[in-house]
């Protein structure tokens, strides 16, 4: 009876086959240890011999389950390591590996994305999942930034809070502020990773370091910066462009300008045409860490 009750509680707490399976295993191990103590305890006189074995069984079963719940991040890591090492695809399907499970429908938004503000337009166009989550500890961080004495920092906090309000009233999706917190974790980035794992959710951020940490933990990351780069128009050799040159390139004979979406254009033999709009033809492209850049030559016309 106790075994069934505990298993049901575990299902309600973490509706994942992997966590239910290992939760049940931990309860069984706890009951096995309690069974070793039950026989000598049952020989105690009167009341103690009757009820103490039952109490010990309950305590060990609950203690084993609580211990497992503390070890969930380590268990996730071990399972991922086994899957990667032996290529056990069936195990991933059964235990719901973060890397192999179906894509989560919920998305958690971090401070950097809210301050960036472009997420609001993405949401209004209907490109976000149906359920968007903002943790209360992110709201607290935004409020702290908005109360800063530094004007630039204060404006960023206010912009982030305004983005929250716009997302709250945006149509076509469910917006929710969640109270989940991890008091044992100090850093906000690590709280976000833990929350994404707990809710099997995607994480939206423009923070490079958080992006790397979340990816390492096999959490799917949505990055507005990467989205903007991927949506930039692809230019081909021979394409004609008009660009305003704003500074010289590494070679003083080169003029550098930017398209409306921020794409860098390096125009050969145009170093003396700064602050002018020129017509040029694309000659080649170069992929850099910051995105795609193009080289062009002046058109004779």
Polypeptide structure, described:
The protein has 301 residues and is an alpha/beta fold. It has 12 helices and 10 strands. It has 3 domains: 2-70, no CATH class; 106-230, 3-Layer(aba) Sandwich (Rossmann fold); 240-298, Beta Barrel (OB fold (Dihydrolipoamide Acetyltransferase, E2P)), CATH 2.40.50. 52% of the residues lie in helices and 19% in strands. Strand 4 (202-204), helix 11 (208-216) and strand 5 form a beta-alpha-beta unit. Helix 7 packs parallel to helix 9 (151-169). The radius of gyration is 28 Å and the shape is elongated. Residues 88-94 and 96-104 have low confidence and may be disordered.
Keywords:
single chain, 301 residues, alpha/beta, Rossmann fold, OB fold (Dihydrolipoamide Acetyltransferase, E2P), 3 domains, 5-stranded parallel β-sheet, 5-stranded mixed β-barrel, 12 helices, 52% helix
Class by helix and strand content?
alpha/beta
Q: What's the gyration radius in Å?
A: 28 Å
Under CATH, the homologous superfamily of the largest domain reads 5'-nuclease
**Can you tell me the overall shape?**
elongated
Query: How many domain regions?
Result: 3
List strands and helices in order, with pairings.
Blueprint: H1 2-13, H2 17-42, H3 46-70, H4 72-86, H5 89-95, E1 106-109, H6 111-116, H7 118-124, E2 131-135, H8 136-146, H9 151-169, E3 174-178, H10 188-199, E4 202-204, H11 208-216, E5 221-222, H12 224-230, E6 240-248, E7 255-258, E8 264-268, E9 277-288, E10 291-298
Parallel strand pairs: 1-2, 1-4, 2-3, 4-5, 8-10
Antiparallel strand pairs: 6-7, 6-9, 7-8, 9-10
Helix pairs in contact: 1-2, 2-3, 7-9, 8-9
